[in-house]
Design a protein that fits this description.
Blueprint (H helix, E strand, L loop, with lengths): L1 H19 L17 E8 L5 E6 L10 E5 L7 E10 L6 E2 L1 H6 L4 E7 L6 E4 L12 E5 L4 E12 L19 E12 L1
Antiparallel strand pairs: 1-2, 1-4, 2-3, 4-5, 4-8, 6-9, 7-8, 9-10
Length: 189
């Protein structure tokens, strides 16, 4: 009788486990965060030389620090068209994450924060399907001649674009997760 009782309990337990499993055998899609090794900001004036800021970290989260470069000179009080690019250069060929940022524009915004006493400024030049800024394309003004300026470029995933100041580029109330953040130092001649 004990054997039947244990057999009955075993079958009952097994059937409970099977009934709890999902009938849907479709694997759950996980939207993994992309690896961004390179942030490249290209500033193009109406006339004159293109200025390129770049941060490259080819070991990802490894021990090596990113390498920052700047090509060209910013000219005082000059307007530039800015284009930022996010790359994963550990892939071959390099994966352009910028395309995903644009495709999922409602879920991304690039912020440009000046952390020094510069009068450089930017305005957004692109919008998502709701009319909110994305920030892959910008208009940048270099401001007056100055030295030791810093610009922080931050890519946020799922920011609160309707929060106070966010559509104007203020990251303070944006929330969301930071996908990439780099700090460039520059002079204006």
């Amino acid at each position: 009788m004990k054997t039947i009782k244990y057999l009955f309990l075993s079958v009952l337990s097994l059937s409970a486990l099977v009934s709890c499993s999902s009938d849907d055998d479709t694997p759950e899609v996980v939207n993994e965060e992309e690896l961004i090794t390179t942030v490249r900001l290209e500033l193009t004036p109406a006339t004159g030389e293109v200025v390129v800021f770049q941060s490259q970290d080819l070991d990802g989260d490894g021990p090596d620090a990113p390498i920052y470069t700047m090509e060209g000179d910013l000219v005082a009080n000059t307007d530039y068209v800015g284009a930022v690019q996010f790359l994963n250069e550990l892939e071959n060929p390099a994966e352009d994450i910028t395309l995903e940022v644009l495709e999922e524009g409602d879920d991304h915004q690039v912020f440009y924060t000046f952390t020094s006493a510069t009068d450089s400024s930017f305005t957004y030049n692109d919008v998502d399907s709701d009319g909110n800024p994305i920030g892959v394309s910008t208009l940048f003004n270099s401001g007056a001649a100055s030295t030791g300026n810093t610009l922080v470029v931050t890519l946020r995933h799922e920011p609160s674009k309707s929060a106070d100041g966010v559509s104007a580029g203020d990251i303070t109330n944006a929330g969301g997760a930071t996908d990439a953040e780099v700090t460039f130092t520059y002079d204006v001649n």
